[in-house]
Automatic annotation (TrEMBL):
PANTHER family: ABC TRANSPORTER, ATP-BINDING PROTEIN, SKFA PEPTIDE EXPORT ATP-BINDING PROTEIN SKFE. The keyword ATP-binding applies. CDD domains: ABC_DR_subfamily_A (cd03230). The keyword Magnesium does not apply. One of its GO terms (molecular function) is ATP hydrolysis activity. Pfam families: ABC_tran. It comes from the Bacteria. Residues 3-228 form the ABC transporter domain. This is ABC transporter ATP-binding protein. InterPro entries: AAA+_ATPase, ABC_transporter-like_ATP-bd, P-loop_NTPase. It comes from Ornithinibacillus bavariensis.
Length: 284
């Protein structure tokens, strides 16, 4: 489904959470929605899911506004970092309710995931640990098979093994049936390899929208002796440098090819570091 974000502004009182945000998502891909605390990610995702209204501007999903639009709300599944479900309901009932709500619900997948995460379907949400509640959110998000599935930090309390399981299943599901997955996270290093496109928000505005592979190639880390690296980075756009025992690593913004001919050791820069750099630079 095509998502057009057109000059979205959201104000909470005097606070400008989104400031004339504009971009477009054309294809079913795994999108990484990144940004510092308070950048406006959750606000954007709630407007996309039709849960809140923008103060100005509009989001169109295949040309229609998602707010109060049932056929569209069935197409968008937003899983937040907590409080996704009524506390007095059992897991089984939550899965049942969601199976009625989402036309493309996959009960077989839901059952498999309940077993994978060792969950007791008879348990009420209020008795679940944080990690178990997150697992339930992940199950609903994946099994919804909603054409637009949005995960907003969905793994609070999940240990590393359980998160890895989630990423693997997400990728498998995506490969079988591509859909638009928007993934907002602060654990960028852990998941950035999944992203096909990266959107970075800063203070309610778009700081960057870029193909993830292009982004990986637009920056590099170069290492060698202090003198060599210092000489190399003259006239380069340097993200940051680290020094240890006469050796230096410099993170540079530019084409990796320019470094490969230098004879120095060259590596990619993690998207997380790039995000930090880009949001610092733009705000400067
Ligand atoms: N209900 C609300 N009432 C008042 N201010 C709000 C409300 N929701 C969000 N904000 C403010 O809007 C801004 C954007 O918040 P939002 O939660 O969208 O950011 P975020 O990028 O998701 O942040 P984080 O990474 O910390 O979750 C913040 O300054 C926040 O304090």
């Amino acid at each position: 489904m095509k998502i057009e974000v057109k000059n979205i502004t959201k104000k909470y009182g005097e606070k400008l959470a989104l400031n004339s945000l504009t971009f477009q998502l054309d294809e079913p891909k795994i999108y990484g929605l990144l940004g510092r605390n308070g950048a406006g990610k959750t606000t954007f995702m709630e407007i996309l899911a039709g849960q809140i209204l923008a103060s100005d501007g509009e989001i169109l999903i295949d040309g229609e506004n998602p707010f109060d639009n049932q056929s569209l709300t069935e197409s968008v599944c937003l899983i937040k970092e907590g409080n996704n479900f009524k506390k007095d309901l059992t897991m089984k009932n939550i899965l049942k309710i969601n199976s009625y709500f989402y036309p493309s619900w996959d009960q077989k997948l839901a059952d498999t995931l309940v077993k994978e995460y060792n969950l007791n379907p008879k348990a009420k949400v209020k008795t679940l640990s944080k990690g178990m509640e997150s697992a339930l959110g992940i199950i609903v998000g994946l099994a919804s098979k909603a054409p637009i599935t949005v995960f907003d930090e969905p793994y609070i309390g999940l240990d590393a093994a359980a998160r890895k399981k989630f990423y693997n299943i997400l990728l498998e599901e995506f490969e079988d049936e591509p859909r638009t997955i928007i993934f907002s996270t602060h654990l960028i290093d852990e998941v950035s390899l999944m992203f096909e496109e990266v959107i970075i928000l800063q203070e309610g505005k778009l700081a960057l929208q870029e193909d993830a592979d292009v982004l990986r190639k637009r920056s590099y880390a170069v290492s060698g002796s202090l003198e060599q690296v210092k000489a190399f980075i003259q006239n380069k756009e340097v993200i940051t440098t680290k020094q240890l025992a006469g050796m230096m690593t410099a993170y540079v913004f530019g084409n990796m090819e320019e470094a490969k001919v230098s004879g120095l050791t060259v590596e990619g820069v993690p998207i997380q570091d790039l995000m930090i750099y880009l949001t610092e630079r733009k705000g400067a």
